[in-house]
């Protein structure tokens, strides 16, 4: 088994944090996105979408997508549970993880990919207007998430979950957009300090 990984990109980091929370070590193969190694013929055969993370099992089976890879390891190593235990916990975590991933995280990525000059050779065509349009969407999502964290300690409820991992990586990925979490978003700032202090956050 080996995990094709990349530095700085948020999605591979989600898997690294997940594995760190589980205490699982998987051999890694680093893929340099800046050097376009993900577009090589060899990597394209593994993952036609040319994205990391990509997990290759010992029998050659390929699993892609951060959540799918995380679910695979959750089934193998159910403790500590990061997708929930009860039907309600699982549904709530799934709901919040999708809200974060399909909303806020996607908006952050669009601001970065379409607005950062360094991404012009990666995001073709790069549409600056789309980056600007997503800034207001991103901030609206952030306000909603801040309100949610005023009600519960973690984004999906009382316990740390994959939804928190997704949100942490999304908030950290705001840094290259040069947009900060507003000071009056006290709930998300409280949450951010807490989850960033976990050992897994350094993964």
Structure explained in plain terms:
The protein is α+β, with helices and mostly antiparallel strands and 203 residues long. The chain has two domains: 2-76, Glutaredoxin; 87-202, Up-down Bundle (Glutathione S-transferase Yfyf (Class Pi), Chain A, domain 2), CATH 1.20.1050. It contains seven helices and four strands; from the N terminus they run E-H-E-H-E-E-H-H-H-H-H. A four-stranded mixed beta sheet has the order 2-1-3-4, covered by helices on one side. Strand 1 (2-5), helix 1 and strand 2 (28-30) form a beta-alpha-beta unit. Helix 4 runs parallel beside helix 6 and helix 5 (128-149) packs across helix 7. It starts with a strand and ends in a 7-residue tail after the last helix. The relative contact order is 0.14.
What topology, given as strand order, has the largest sheet?
Answer: 2-1-3-4
Report the strand count: 4
Quickly count the domains: 2
> What profile does the largest beta sheet have?
4 strands, mixed
Mean pLDDT: 96
Q: Give the terminus-to-terminus CA distance.
A: 19 Å
Order of helices and strands: EHEHEEHHHHH
> By helix and strand content, what is the structural category?
alpha+beta
* Poorly predicted residue ranges: none
- What level of helicity do the residues show? 40-55%
Q: Helix segment count?
A: 7
